[in-house]
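Please fill in the sequence for the structure shown.

STRUCTURE ENCODING:
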């Protein structure tokens, strides 16, 4: 508990000042009057205090924690059969990472696989958070999901409790070490059933050099697509967590994907960089991947302020129906869940954050 709370505190402390600083120094794209910004800044400072208090409340609450709420509250599904929580998790009884051979039997036939990349070349907008939590909710709703971590930071990997030191093969190997072009190479890399319905292709820091190494390689843009190909039909969704850039790693995601899901943070310079993102999408669509389209834009880290409301309005004005109805609130349970290695839907099933990701998943399913 001591470890968790200090890690948690560190995460919160680094997160809040970054937001405050970001709002001051970044160039303005959405015109917002100065008075609103001032109010926003003082509000964020106040919020920092509230977060501290909430955190304290959390510590007290979890010390005397009653049995966790049943999962049923999350999904509208009729009473699911009781499940053994030990069925899921990255580590097997031998203390090593589970391998594809350990994968639990899949009782339901997967539909046509939708490959979705979670992309915004800005960092810290909620890509990994969305990739993790959307995957977890879809898995909980009975879908088979393959979450592919394509970011050297490996936040989707560690956020689901996968210890990086135990990883033998990762996305780096998928892209650069499958020398014989084995179509089933992914089986050596997948960690099955990390949470219900979700298998993970983990990333480690060595992926950072892949960007450069790929430049010299044959079919460098299609490595990921080729690796995923043999597994289409086994999953309902493949969710790719992209790095914060538009380099070759991201191009690999765009070539492999059918759809792009773009999280946008409800903040002052929300739309910055979006033109470039859409240009890149169009270029890939015209040249290599004609299927590629936007799945939608999801507004993240919303807090009830004039500024956030104006940003949401502005983004909706620009992008209309492309923007999901669900707006993900700024929620402390969302930000602390990764330090427990859990999606927010398991860490705090009744939180506003968890409920928002359930609503988002329903919209994603509805968009087909
Ligand atoms: N809705 C939210 N409420 C509170 N904190 C959030 C929320 N979404 C993301 N965060 C936090 O913001 C930071 C950046 O989010 P992350 O998903 O890692 O962004 P990205 O993958 O785009 O870089 C992380 O510390 C994460 O926990
Ligand atoms: Mg990320």
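FILLED IN BY: designer on duty
SEQUENCE:
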């Amino acid at each position: 508990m001591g470890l968790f709370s200090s890690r948690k505190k560190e995460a919160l402390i680094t997160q809040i000042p970054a937001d405050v600083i970001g709002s001051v120094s970044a160039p303005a794209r959405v015109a917002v009057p100065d008075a609103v910004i001032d109010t926003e800044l003082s509000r964020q400072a106040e919020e920092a205090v509230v977060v501290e208090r909430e955190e304290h409340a959390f510590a007290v609450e979890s010390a005397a924690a009653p049995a966790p709420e049943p999962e049923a509250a999350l999904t509208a599904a009729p009473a699911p059969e009781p499940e053994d929580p030990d069925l899921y998790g990255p580590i097997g009884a031998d203390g090593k990472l589970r391998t594809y051979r350990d994968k639990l039997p899949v009782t339901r036939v997967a539909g046509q696989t939708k490959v979705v990349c979670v992309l915004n070349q800005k960092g810290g907008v909620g890509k990994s958070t969305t990739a993790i939590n959307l995957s977890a909710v879809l898995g909980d709703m009975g879908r088979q999901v393959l979450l592919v971590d394509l970011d050297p930071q490996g936040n989707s990997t560690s956020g689901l409790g996968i210890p990086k030191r135990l990883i033998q093969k990762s996305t780096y190997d998928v892209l650069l070490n499958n020398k014989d072009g084995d179509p089933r190479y992914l089986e050596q890399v997948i960690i099955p059933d990390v949470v219900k319905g979700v298998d993970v292709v983990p990333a480690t820091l060595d992926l950072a050099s892949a960007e450069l190494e790929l430049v010299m390689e044959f079919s460098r843009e299609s490595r990921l697509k080729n690796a995923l190909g043999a597994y289409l039909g086994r999953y309902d969704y493949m969710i790719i967590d992209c790095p914060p850039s538009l380099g070759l790693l991201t191009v690999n995601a765009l070539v492999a994907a059918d759809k792009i899901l773009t999280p946008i943070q409800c903040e002052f310079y929300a739309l910055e960089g979006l033109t470039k993102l859409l240009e890149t999408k169009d270029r890939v669509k015209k040249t290599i991947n004609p299927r590629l389209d936007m799945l939608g834009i999801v507004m993240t880290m919303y807090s009830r302020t004039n500024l956030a409301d104006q940003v949401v309005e502005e983004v909706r004005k620009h992008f209309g129906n492309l923007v999901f109805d669900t707006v993900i609130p700024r929620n402390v349970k969302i930000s602390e869940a990764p330090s427990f290695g859990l999606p927010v839907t398991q860490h705090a099933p009744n939180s506003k954050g968890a409920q928002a990701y359930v609503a988002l998943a329903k919209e994603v399913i509805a968009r087909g």
